[in-house]
TrEMBL record:
<dbReference type="InterPro" id="IPR011990">
    <property type="entry name" value="TPR-like_helical_dom_sf"/>
</dbReference>
<dbReference type="InterPro" id="IPR001173">
    <property type="entry name" value="Glyco_trans_2-like"/>
</dbReference>
<dbReference type="InterPro" id="IPR029044">
    <property type="entry name" value="Nucleotide-diphossugar_trans"/>
</dbReference>
<feature type="domain" description="Glycosyltransferase 2-like">
    <location>
        <begin position="9"/>
        <end position="131"/>
    </location>
</feature>
<dbReference type="Pfam" id="PF13176">
    <property type="entry name" value="TPR_7"/>
</dbReference>
<protein>
    <recommendedName>
        <fullName>Glycosyltransferase 2-like domain-containing protein</fullName>
    </recommendedName>
</protein>
<dbReference type="Pfam" id="PF00535">
    <property type="entry name" value="Glycos_transf_2"/>
</dbReference>
<dbReference type="Pfam" id="PF13432">
    <property type="entry name" value="TPR_16"/>
</dbReference>
<dbReference type="InterPro" id="IPR019734">
    <property type="entry name" value="TPR_rpt"/>
</dbReference>
């Protein structure tokens, strides 16, 4: 530390972040000499948690502008360097101890830091990595702009022409894009409103149009997304840090709209500017697969594996799995469509290995192997991917066999009823009941469904199956009682109806497999499927004459 001046100041803006703030602050222990927290209106324990960590806390009324709040935190910082984190982030534990040597041995004005966005708490490899300036010298002319996804890189270069922004190994883990977090905080709708307001203020700002396009894309409003992303592409400056993510977002949007030829054309046009961006090559492969140009898709996906994960920097929006397990899954799907089942099995297996027991390729493996291979061999093939000492893992494996009609094997993995299963949410009890109902053991199935605790998120599903079993046992009063417990909403009645229809369809389909010449079974199945289609069809609005 030079004199009494802090070397590194951590600057944060927060609001109602009591749940995740402790993790963030713990990650900078021994790294930040000063912590500055600007609170924009918390009503939980956020401020108290920050103060307990030794932070200087200042209240700043929220004005709908993230850059404004961010810059207030910079105004308060006294360190030589600024480190910027959000409460739903943390420094990667393997990187935190190298920051001081990094800032002491450089002539750079700032560093390009990798932001690792964790997308699914249950899947370690589900992440997208971008790059941003989060560590920079503390100078009064270095300030953020942008009311949403505020940026500082271009402002540093504008303030000091020739300023170096160097890549570094530092990683920040970001948890705010995990589905459960986004849903809980209603982040998408908030961001959409801010992005719209920003574009209204500055319609010629390429980055703002890009942000709005991304928000529309997340909300699956693909036509709106495409309009904004195309506008951003026309306006953006070549070499922008976010340009690679912009073109990737364009390809994703075009895919969602079914514009496969446009995907291929855009990917080819972008190749020269982004030559080793694996993600663009992968999306080209997806377009070819959906066009049923299978041989070409195989070549493109093998190219992805040869390239490996795209480098970050220079690229943003990088999904490392597109150079690994997700591409093996894609190859498995293409080979399966081509009828090359041994190749499909090989790539599904590799996807599961690289994905740490990823369930999607395992499900596809089960679909290929269970009907065709010796059952003992299939069990030996799948079991190594599961920790059978864990109840949740046994349920996951049992579900694979349940899905493909091997209820006897599923029951073996589930074992006898366990009084402790209710505490785990009743997943084993629910699946055990479904297996027993499939083989006609309705009394035993009822006991399993009734053991799912009322506080479990699976309880409503268990009530649907309870109603079905009671009806099969000729207990209509008990069946109606189970339906009433669901609450009497239209969707609850539909759930019960769907179960009855699906069971009937399965029975008829099995009958046709055994007696393929039966005209009566064929006609009944067609009529049933028409009934199911009517059930699933949304109600039409009443006309003005009614």
């Amino acid at each position: 530390m030079a004199g009494s001046r802090p070397e590194i100041s951590l600057c944060m803006i927060v609001r109602d972040e009591a749940e995740c703030l402790p993790r963030c602050l713990e990650s900078v222990q021994g790294v930040a000499d000063e912590i500055v927290v600007v609170d924009t209106g918390s009503v939980d324990d956020t401020v108290e948690i920050a103060r307990r960590s030794g932070a200087r806390v200042e209240h700043f009324p929220w004005n709908g502008d993230f850059a404004s709040a961010r810059n207030r935190s910079l105004d308060l910082a006294t360190g030589e360097w600024i480190l910027v984190l959000d409460a739903d982030e943390e420094l990667h534990p393997d990187d935190r101890h190298g920051i001081r040597s990094l800032v002491r041995q450089t002539g750079a004005e700032g560093f390009l830091v990798r932001i690792v966005n964790r997308l699914d708490s249950a899947v370690p490899w589900a992440e997208e990595t971008s790059v941003n300036v989060r560590l920079f010298r503390n100078r009064p002319e270095y300030r953020f702009t942008g009311i949403l996804h505020e940026q500082i890189a271009e402002n540093i270069v504008r303030a000091r022409p020739g300023a170096r922004l160097e890549p570094c190994a530092l990683r920040i883990l970001h948890y705010g894009y995990q589905q459960e977090v986004v849903a809980r905080k209603e982040k998408r709708l908030r961001n959409l409103a801010l992005a719209r307001e920003a574009v209204t203020r500055a319609p010629e700002d390429a980055f703002l149009r890009f942000n709005l396009g991304v928000e529309y894309l997340r909300l699956e409003r693909y036509e709106d997304a495409l309009a904004e992303l195309e506008a951003a592409w026309r306006l953006h400056a070549r070499g922008a840090l976010w340009a690679s993510k912009l073109v990737k977002s364009l390809l994703v949007c075009l895919l969602r709209l079914g514009r496969h030829q446009d995907v291929l054309a855009r990917a080819e046009a972008s190749q020269a500017e982004f030559p080793d961006f694996t993600d663009l090559v992968f999306l080209r492969g997806v377009a070819l697969f959906e066009l049923k140009r299978h041989a070409e898709a195989v070549g493109v996906f093998h190219q992805c594996l040869a390239m490996g994960p795209a480098p970050c920097p220079p690229y943003s929006g990088v999904e490392p799995a597109l150079g690994g397990c997700k591409t093996h899954l894609a190859l498995g799907m293409v080979y399966e469509a081509m009828g090359r089942l041994p190749d499909a099995v090989r790539h599904y297996h590799q996807a599961a290995v690289l994905g740490g027991g990823w369930h999607e390729p395992l499900g596809r493996l089960a679909a290929l192997l269970i009907p065709r291979e010796d059952l003992a061999a299939v069990r030996g093939y799948l079991e190594p991917f599961f920790d059978l000492g864990q109840p949740s893992q046994r349920v996951a494996l049992a579900n694979l066999f349940f899905t493909h009609g091997r209820y006897d094997v599923a029951l073996q993995y589930l074992g006898p009823p366990d009084p402790e299963d209710g505490g785990a949410g009743g997943a084993a009890a629910l699946l055990r009941g479904r297996c027993l109902a499939k083989v006609g053991q309705y009394e035993e199935a009822l006991a399993a469904f009734r053991s799912v605790p009322p506080e479990s998120p699976l309880h409503r599903e268990a009530l649907v199956h309870t109603a079905f079993c009671c009806w099969c046992l000729d207990r209509p009063r008990a069946a109606r009682a189970a339906v009433r417990k669901l609450g009497g909403r239209d969707e609850d009645y539909l759930a019960v109806a769907r179960l009855f229809y699906s069971e009937a369809e399965e029975i008829l389909s099995e009958g046709l497999r055994r007696f393929p010449e039966s005209t009566l079974l064929q006609e009944t199945l067609v009529a049933l499927r028409e009934e199911i289609a009517d059930l699933e069809r949304p109600a039409r609005p009443a006309s003005g004459d009614d």
